[in-house]
Amino acid sequence: MSSPGSTSSSTSPGTAASAARVKEDRSARVAVTIFPLLVFAAAAIGFFFSGPASSLGPAVNPLLGVIMFGMGLTLTLSDFALVARRPVPVLIGVVAQYLIMPLIGLGVATLLQLPPALAAGVILVGCAPGGTASNVVSYLAKADTALSVAMTSVSTLLAPLLTPVLTLWLAGQYMPVEGGSMAMSIVKIVLLPVIGGLVIRLLLSRLVDRILPVLPWISVLAISFVVAAVVGKSADQVAAAGALVLVAVILHNGLGYALGYGFARLLRQPVRSARTVSIEVGMQNSGLAAGLAAQYFSPAAALPGAVFSIWHNLSGAILAALYRRSDARRAAAAQAEATEVSASA
User: Domain of life of the organism in this record (predicted)?
Assistant: First the structure.
């Protein structure tokens, strides 16, 4: 085995691809640890320097487009081939995504008796597709990362249809919803950038492979600017209702993890797939929800999405650590049992 610093003229393309993947994984592991801190810092900047931060408002949708373009760059045709090879777990994950989280959002809004703007914002977070951070957390949790990517991809492609329809159905009682306009915005912000990134990956795969480790950082910087802009526009509401929004977000996210796992296990999915579904359901594209809420509802309605962007990265890292610790305990118990059986033989 060669050391990390050594080189060889006979390095195969497979070895190079493997090295690129290791580098990408290392970058993602570091990034998911620092994500919450960076986004929280952006929220603090938005709150204390609301004037300059709110001026970023017009850049929110282009920044979301950058994030989704980056997601497209990480996709390959094999990610979509998994849908054909393993349609059942993908279908379970996507159904859970668009069934559990919207209904939890409505339940949380009703339970906490949220004001109309905040209720609409919480529900919109629930109606958003899966977030790309779920793929990184799935990797760290030793869940099924390929399945996570497939679920995120499918839920994202379905977002122009399902997000506005579900938002109109569930949040329309709180605030007027322009379903058609929202659908077109999602096409422009999500669908076109993702397809564009996928095409670039197909045409310039070697170039894209080189920049893959940088993509998580570009995404977190973009979402940080989005959060700063959203918080800057609603600094007064943050001071008045920040604690209530945080409680709503924690409930929404935590119940998503728990019910997503339970839903998958109820349908007899293995533990690894159930972990993937739980992460996919609990972690949302909250940046998209914040941008849409700011555009179609009000600055206050965008707060749940902004807070969710901070919290779900933190809770996701914690959940991944708990899953890994559970694996370690299970492996230790199995080893102890094997040792005991060997000793008594």
Answer: Bacteria
Kindly give the interhelix angle for 87-111 and 145-171, rounded to the nearest 10 degrees.
40
Return the pLDDT at 267. Answer: 93
Q: How confident is the model at residue 4 (pLDDT cuts 50, 70, 90)?
A: very low
What are the pLDDT digits (tens) for 291-305? 899 888 988 898 999
Say which DSSP state 6 is in: -
Torsion over CA: 159, 161, 164, 167 (sign): negative
Q: Residue 180 pLDDT more than 50?
A: yes
How far apart (Å, rounded) are the C-alpha atoms in residues 95 and 81?
A: 19
Query: In a 3-state reduction of DSSP, which class is residue 170?
Result: helix
Domain 21-327: top CATH class: mainly alpha
Burial 56-66 (b: 16+ CB within 10 A, else e): bbeebbebbbb
What pTM does this model have?
A: 0.81
H, E, C per residue of 203-215: HCHHHHHHHHHHH
CB atoms inside a 10 Å sphere around CB 10: 5
CA 121, 127, 131, 134 dihedral sign is positive
In this structure, the number of other CB atoms found within 10 A of the CB of residue 226 comes to: 32
The per-residue pLDDT of the chain, averaged, comes to 83
- State the average pLDDT over residues 127-139: 83
Angstrom distance (rounded) from CA 46 to CA 201: 34
| Tokens of residue 317, six digits | 């890292």
Helix (H) or strand (E) holding 268: none
Domain ranges of the chain: 21-327
Q: Over range 71-96, report the average pLDDT.
A: 85
